[in-house]
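User: Before I run my own analysis I want an independent prediction to cross-check against. Here's the chain; please return only the structure tokens and, at the end, one sentence I can use as a sanity check.
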Amino acid sequence: MDAIVTAAGKNSRMINDFKKMNKKPIHKLKLKLQDKEILIHTLENIFQSDIDNVSVCVGHYKEEIIELLKEYSLDVKLNIVVNENPDVGLTKTIENALKNNMDKYYLFAAADQPTLSSKTINSMINVLKNSPDPTNTISILRRRKIGKLDTAEGLGMPFCCYGKLLYDYISNENDNLNPILRKMISDGVEFYAVEEDNELELLNINHYDDYLRIKNEIEEN
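Assistant: Structure tokens:
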């Protein structure tokens, strides 16, 4: 199984938080946890899982992201996919990465998920592989229930599925993922939610306070 990691966003909420604090904005993927950037934690956890190849999607701030990858010599270990037009939704970013490589199974993860553990990634992989029909199944980190789901409300990355299954839904769309996932489940795509390895995996880093909460939890343990 391969992985597509999205790192193409505007970073607008974090930038606004820095401005409110009268501080120079720092891209959230470059904020550090235990002396290592968020993006690097995310990628290292993926590399430690049962993932074969990794693609990172960049758009806004692509030069900063690519430079950070080079600092850790990760640019030679993964494929960098560039959005020619950075002003697109998440579905377009994923479509761009998938369009020539649909016939594979993938982990789809956001670059700002440094607490996503290799254990949880492997659980999602195994649930997908052992499902009755992997080509029509999504295994996903739970937000509420665990096991087979009847709603996709509140769900997003990370998840695993067949590339062409997702591509058929996102091609010609320019949106966030949740509306796509809701349509998929209403069309009969099977969803199985996997339990988190630790509760920090359920936190999103959208604002500076989110980052501080995760930083404090990690660095206290």
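Sanity check: The radius of gyration is 17 Å.
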